[in-house]
Amino acid sequence: MTGHEDRSPTTVEKTAGSAGRIADALRADILSGAFAPGERIRQEVLAERYGASRLPVRDALRALEAEGLVIMVPNTGAWVAKLSLEECQEVYQVRERVEPLLLRMSMPGLDAETRDRLLPLVEAMRQEPQVEEFLRLDREFHMLTYSGAESTILGDLVERLWNTTQHYRRAFTLLGTERTSRTVHLEHEMLALAILRDDPDGAERVLLGHISSTRLELSRHPEVFHRL
Amino acid sequence: MTGHEDRSPTTVEKTAGSAGRIADALRADILSGAFAPGERIRQEVLAERYGASRLPVRDALRALEAEGLVIMVPNTGAWVAKLSLEECQEVYQVRERVEPLLLRMSMPGLDAETRDRLLPLVEAMRQEPQVEEFLRLDREFHMLTYSGAESTILGDLVERLWNTTQHYRRAFTLLGTERTSRTVHLEHEMLALAILRDDPDGAERVLLGHISSTRLELSRHPEVFHRL
DNA sequence: GAGCTTGAAAATGTATCCAATCCTCGTTTA
DNA sequence: TAAACGAGGATTGGATACATTTTCAAGCTC
């Protein structure tokens, strides 16, 4: 008997043992900016930093490499992934096509309680919070609009796209002018309203425009990508 | 001239690190069907199969897990990734949105020589080749249409999506009826013609329809996903 | 003095060994 | 008789140690 189909781990998404913890910690450190793009990562340093051997560190690096947050070169080392202007625009182009789909799939699954949290988040962002707080609110707002989809594949993809551009969102938030900032607030409010009135087409359209206008903003600040 | 390029007869390419070779070999084995979805993968078996220790095998498994081809459960083992009908449809929905974009980005970069290879490939697929040969031609045809994009991010994403659904494309090719087969050939020809006449909008539309019709085909054969 | 060569140091990749965890199967008990 | 419990076996995860590769810098040649 070849007992292969023992158990179907389709619902199991857990990352492996303690390497998963290291991967989570390192991911958080990269997203928080503690490790900057282009910075070299030495396995030994991480091993000491997280109190483990180099082996789970390598596993974690491989996992993050697959997420697009780390670049590994054989026999050479690992670096925090760095996006060129063109690559960043590419990510945003993918987001323009993918996130409206995820939003559409999510909307039927959003309950009233979840929807009631949308506009308060928009209001909170209007209070001109600090950069890190704004990034957190922005992410929470969009992820909330996606929370109705039990999608695993598309949801993970979108999360990866957000993570790879996290550093650049921070940079652009830092030098954001008031006008673009107000535009973002309006787009967020329009998105929330479209969701509240159960208008999938409108929501898709607004979200596409939101991401698209952000992408166009990238071209106006190429200096963010030049300073290596 | 910094010339250390002199190597012994066994000139190993830059793809050093046997973990990479194992990952490539295992990926090929999964895509070829040698390992079926849902099948358990034991590290020791792979270590012997590829003549290495369990350690590079673990690295390879992690790499493939990140690509979505393998599922790893802590302290338990690894399985070849298996898609449910819903997940497979989700992948196709993502492909519907993403591949037309990649095609649009690719078209300006397609030179005359590359375009001349499109219709012959369509013809070759019309000759009712064996399943494996058809899968190869189909993949080559589509990848050729994408070869004009120097895109790294989007190209890798599309390749991953193709890989995760490779097994199910094989299954559906096996039970394909003549009518659906002819439809596929027509869609391929329309796609090639749209590219040859430099019609990005038309090409996007045809490709979207092509993927979409394939996705709808999935619902008609749920038994492919049940027998697992 | 400039550029190439060479050698040492450091970082990565791999192998072997040991600990922790999970599955299987036999035993026991209600 | 069936279900729950526990011990044994098997498999994975991690740590230490070693081989390989790369890089950097000092020294030598031209």
From TrEMBL, chains A, B:
Alphabetized Pfam families for the sequence: FCD, GntR
Record's protein name: GntR family transcriptional regulator
Domain of life: Bacteria
GO molecular-function terms, A-Z: DNA binding; DNA-binding transcription factor activity
Domain HTH gntR-type positions: 16-83
UniProt KW keywords: DNA-binding, Transcription, Transcription regulation
